[in-house]
Amino acid sequence: MNDLLPLGSFNAMAVGAPLSGAAAPLTKRAKAAIVVRLLLNEGADIPIEELPDELQARLTQQMGSMRTVDRHTLDAVVEEFENELNSIGLSFPGGIVGALTALDGKISKQTAERLRKEAGVRQLGDPWARLRELDAPTVLEMIEKESTEVIAVVLSKLKVSVSAKLLGLLPGPRAREITYAVSLTNSVSPEAVYNIGLSLASQLDSIPIKAFDDEPVERVGAILNSSTSMTRDDMLTGLDETDEGFANAVRKAIFTFADIPARVQPRDIPRILRGADRAQLVYAMAGSEAAGLKIVMDFILDNMSSRMADQLREEIAELETVKASEAELAMSAIIDVIRQLETDGELQLVQDDEEED
User: Fold this and answer.
1) What pLDDT score does 280 carry?
2) DSSP letters along 30-68, please?
3) In the chain, N or C: fewer CB atoms in 10 Å?
C-alpha cells in the first residue's frame, strides 16, 4: 500500500499463518500492514482516520487476514521502510487541504477561499475540522434555525469549550432541550453526522471574505488611542454629530491614560510598572496633575510598594515643568505597555459592562 506509507516494493518472506522458510513476494498492502501494526504496538499515534475510507478499509482487511510474521521478515520490512524514509529529501502535503494548511497565512484569504470553493468541501476532507475552528457566536448564527437533533450533533462534534459557550448563548429552555437530545445521539449514523457537517461547512463558503479582521469600531478605537487628546476629542465630537451610536461604541473601545483607575485592576499595577520605561513613567505621572488626571497618579502610587512610591514622588518633584506634549507621549507609552500585556494575556482590562454590574 504505497499510498499509505512509503514502504517501497521488494520481495521477502510470505506472510500468512506462521511463516516457514519458503520465500514468496510480499505485497505492498502486506508491508503497510506490518509497519502499521509495529508502530501501533510501540504506542505511536498514527492518524489513519485521515486516509480515505477505501484505504482504511483495505488496511483493516489486510491486517485481519494476517496472523504472524517471523523476525527475519519483520527486520527486512523495517529496514526497507527506513531506507524509504531516509531517501525522501522533501515531502509535500497531500491534496489541496494539506497545501492550504501549509500555506495558511502565506497566501491571501481571497486566494485560499477561491481554491477551497473550486476544490469543494468534500475534497477538503472532514468538514468538522473546519467547523471546530469556529467560535461560539459564529456557530450560533449557523444553527439557530436547525432542529434540536441537528444542534445536539453539532454540540457533540465541536470543542467542549465552544459547546459550553454555545449553550450559554441559547435561551434556557432551548439549551435544556438540546442537552437532553445529546443523550439520544448514539443512534445517529456516521453518514448522517458527516452530512450535517458537510451542510454546515458549505455555508462557510457563501460568507463573503472580509477585507479587515477587526470591526470598524475596533479599528477607529485603535487609531484614536494613538492620537493626541485634542485630535481624539475633535473626532469624537464629529462622530457624535454624524452617528451617535457609533461614537458611543468607539468611546467604549478607546482606552486612554484617564481610564486606568476604572479599567485596570489594582493587582496589575506592579506588572505594568515592570514593563514600563522608568523615564516615561515619571514624565506621565508628572504631567498627569496638570492634565487634570491626578486621580490616575494617585491610583498608580497607591497600588505599588511604599518604597517605590516614595522614590517616584521624589523623581517627580525633581522635574522642572513638563511640556504637555511630552507628558502625552509618555502617557501613550504607558498605554502601549498595558495593551501589549493584554494582548499577551498577562492582564485583563475591566469592561464597561462589568463596571455597571
Assistant:
1) 93
2) HHHHHHHHHHHHTT----GGGS-HHHHHHHHHHHHH--B
3) C
